[in-house]
Write a structure and sequence with these properties.
Elements lengths: L7 E7 L3 H20 L8 E6 L6 H11 L3 E6 L5 H12 L5 E4 L10 H10 L4 E6 L7 H16 L8 E8 H8 L8 H8 L3 E6 L13 H15 L2 H29 L7 H34 L6 E5 L2
Parallel strand pairs: 1-2, 1-4, 2-3, 5-7
Antiparallel strand pairs: 3-8, 4-6, 5-6
Helix pairs in contact: 1-2, 9-10
């Protein structure tokens, strides 16, 4: 059993959330006061907003929240580094002060009442607690189909990932120290965190609708994020290229025999359509294969440079 009143830091990455932050601050104030009153968390607990190079007045809103209530802190990154890097920056900052962290999105689509369930799992010995959606009934058919397809495809590709879990999770200081030892630049935390180990738990919740602002994950970004996860944790696409290459070699041998037979029987012109189609097909497969290989080489290139994943410009933590 863990201690009764751990120091909790809620880590909230923010990118252009000017419209949403007043609502988020109001709701989290009530929630944190409720948890402190119930003695579920320490009085030293905080909400840590991470400003990921926002172009609107997000940082001003964070400063305002901090000024009026010291339970709110802020981390300002020097430039936009993406959701995963911003989240990591917040977690590593919080690790210096907190016993546990819970990461959530600023849009409050992750039900804040799941915090109670996470704290219960933590007190029962879990070092990592995954927030998992209990259903996707509120999603459109397309959203539900693509989201669930993503998790299933990741499993097929050999990526250890929790089904229907995004980045809403509790991590203890011990788990955060384990996370800190992962040095890759190409971050995909949903795949990294299960690699840490330790005892884990699951807290189910219903996902809410966004009440203000716009989603930062349109289809294009979702596809990019999916590829980031696959290419960071699976080499199966490269193995698939090898298999396709072998199959194409066998087909080429069959086509060669066919071409010789056509030539010997004096019907060479009849195979023109087949040959043209074959050339275009093989060329397309070659270009696709080179593209996939290039993506992996690009990731290796980024890793070897060892550039910082984020740079903190300013901290607001009392």
């Amino acid at each position: 059993m863990k201690k009764n009143e751990p120091i909790l830091y809620l880590v909230i990455p923010c990118y252009n959330e000017e419209e949403m932050l007043n609502i988020t601050t109001k709701e989290l104030t009530k929630k944190m006061e409720q948890l402190i009153k119930k003695k579920l968390i320490s009085n030293d607990s905080k909400v840590l907003y991470v400003n990921d190079g926002s172009k609107d007045k997000t940082w001003e809103k964070i400063e305002e929240a901090h000024k009026h209530n010291k339970i709110f802190g802020g981390v300002k990154l020097s430039r936009n580094k993406g959701h995963q890097n911003a989240l990591l920056a917040g977690l590593m900052t919080a690790k210096k002060y907190a016993d546990i962290t819970i990461s959530m999105d600023a849009d409050l689509q992750d039900d804040i009442n799941v915090i109670d369930k996470m704290l219960e799992e933590y007190k029962n010995g879990a070092e990592i607690v995954y927030g998992v959606r209990s259903s996707r009934k509120k999603d459109t058919f397309f959203k539900r189909f693509t989201a669930e397809g993503f998790y299933k495809f990741m499993k097929i590709m050999g990526v250890d990932i929790v089904f229907n879990h995004a980045d809403c999770r509790l991590m203890s200081k011990t788990a955060l120290e384990g996370l800190e030892s992962f040095k890759e630049v190409n971050l995909f935390l949903r795949g990294i965190v299960p690699q840490i180990g330790y005892k884990t738990g699951i807290a189910y919740y219903e996902r809410n609708e966004r009440v203000a602002g716009e989603s930062k994950y349109p289809l294009k970004e979702m596809l990019k994020f999916a590829w980031e996860g696959i290419s960071s944790f699976s080499v199966k696409p490269l193995k698939m290229i090898t298999n396709v290459g072998f199959i194409m070699s066998m087909l080429s041998f069959i086509v060669l025999i066919y071409a010789l037979i056509v030539k010997l029987t004096g019907r060479a012109v009849s195979g023109w359509t087949f040959i043209i189609c074959s050339i275009w097909l093989v060329s397309g497969i070659q270009m696709l294969s080179l593209g996939i290989i290039g993506e992996y080489i690009g990731k290796i290139y980024n890793e070897t440079k060892h550039r910082p994943r984020y740079i903190v410009e300013k901290e607001l933590i009392d």
